[in-house]
Amino acid sequence: MSKQVYYRELGLANTREMFQKAVSGGYAIPAYNFNNLEQLQAIVAACVETASPVIVQVSKGARNYANETMLRYMAMGAVKMAREMGSQIPIALHLDHGDSFELCQACIESGFSSVMIDGSHLPYDDNVALTRKVVEYAHEHDVTVEGELGVLAGIEDEVQAEHSTYTKPEEVEDFVAKTGVDSLAISIGTSHGAFKFKVKPGEEPPPLRFDILYEIEKRIPGFPIVLHGSSSVVPEYVELINQYGGKMEGAVGVSEEQLRKAAASSVCKINIDSDGRLAVTAKVREYLAQNPAEFDPRKYLGAARSELVRLIKHKNKEVLGSAGQA
Ligand SMILES: O=C(CO)COP(=O)(O)O
Ligand SMILES: O=C[C@H](O)COP(=O)(O)O
Ligand SMILES: [Zn+2]
Ligand SMILES: [Zn+2]
């Protein structure tokens, strides 16, 4: 059946078992993006301390920034670090927003245990065909695949209501059956980045479209659902950034309450990148403002890394519910 399973040599796990447990347990697996050493150290330390399964994910941007070979060996190092800490938490290495069969294939052959093929911008039948092709190849190597239906809206797209970008519940059964994907990313109002909603000062952002999520759940009961764009855009970080010379007025994200509600449903993977970026920027700005003579990067990056550990522990324990589940 299986051809070579490359990721086993790196000590990684695919997402199949993680998702089964998360869906039945009413929690979500955190998927944290990483581009550098300090981020990955913080993810491992925090997930080991909270005994949380974890997905570490790499975007195309991360591959360009850090070098794909370097990232792969960093992930292997992350597994070794966790084991040396005496922890057996499952760690998956996932390609975030893969945009071609060739990229997914290259990642599978270089040790990724999970890939996303994001055909959500394509016409439906093309999305099905591309996703199906990736699934066939990935499953030969016991790699799990995330597909996507519906387009994550930017704040500007949201206002042009002629064609809704939300996932159409009536398409999900057909998509899952035809492609054989292991999980499905959907669009219910989240978006990437630090400016997710346009709100006036003091106003709450609009709630996510739980009606669409529950309709999808009804059609594919127990099937693992993924939420992208799920940073809370932690207000304390935005305030620190603005206090120390930054300019991020109006930055706003998805509330923790909404994420808790999502994690309790069949949403079993929650993607968080921006909150980590904000934590690092806030702490580096603060550190350098308070220590103007310091020039050792270990000092300000160390401060940033400590904050990342705190943030990730908080997410695992208080928001996603993945703490203690490994
Ligand atoms: O979806 C994401 C990565 O794929 C990250 O979303 P955020 O920008 O909300 O952190
Ligand atoms: O979905 C996007 C992720 O946050 C990765 O972003 P990036 O492409 O800037 O690395
Ligand atoms: Zn997408
Ligand atoms: Zn995303």
TrEMBL record:
<feature type="binding site">
    <location>
        <position position="148"/>
    </location>
    <ligand>
        <name>Zn(2+) 2</name>
    </ligand>
</feature>
<dbReference type="GO" id="GO:0004332">
    <property type="term" value="F:fructose-bisphosphate aldolase activity"/>
</dbReference>
<feature type="binding site">
    <location>
        <position position="228"/>
    </location>
    <ligand>
        <name>Zn(2+) 1</name>
    </ligand>
</feature>
<dbReference type="InterPro" id="IPR013785">
    <property type="entry name" value="Aldolase_TIM"/>
</dbReference>
<keyword id="KW-0456">Lyase</keyword>
<dbReference type="InterPro" id="IPR000771">
    <property type="entry name" value="FBA_II"/>
</dbReference>
<dbReference type="InterPro" id="IPR050246">
    <property type="entry name" value="Class_II_FBP_aldolase"/>
</dbReference>
<feature type="binding site">
    <location>
        <position position="192"/>
    </location>
    <ligand>
        <name>Zn(2+) 1</name>
    </ligand>
</feature>
<dbReference type="GO" id="GO:0006096">
    <property type="term" value="P:glycolytic process"/>
</dbReference>
<feature type="active site" description="Proton donor">
    <location>
        <position position="96"/>
    </location>
</feature>
<dbReference type="Pfam" id="PF01116">
    <property type="entry name" value="F_bP_aldolase"/>
</dbReference>
<keyword id="KW-0862">Zinc</keyword>
<keyword id="KW-0479">Metal-binding</keyword>
<dbReference type="GO" id="GO:0030388">
    <property type="term" value="P:fructose 1,6-bisphosphate metabolic process"/>
</dbReference>
<feature type="binding site">
    <location>
        <position position="97"/>
    </location>
    <ligand>
        <name>Zn(2+) 1</name>
    </ligand>
</feature>
<feature type="binding site">
    <location>
        <position position="118"/>
    </location>
    <ligand>
        <name>Zn(2+) 2</name>
    </ligand>
</feature>
<dbReference type="InterPro" id="IPR011289">
    <property type="entry name" value="Fruc_bis_ald_class-2"/>
</dbReference>
<protein>
    <submittedName>
        <fullName>Fructose-1,6-bisphosphate aldolase, class II</fullName>
    </submittedName>
</protein>
<dbReference type="GO" id="GO:0008270">
    <property type="term" value="F:zinc ion binding"/>
</dbReference>
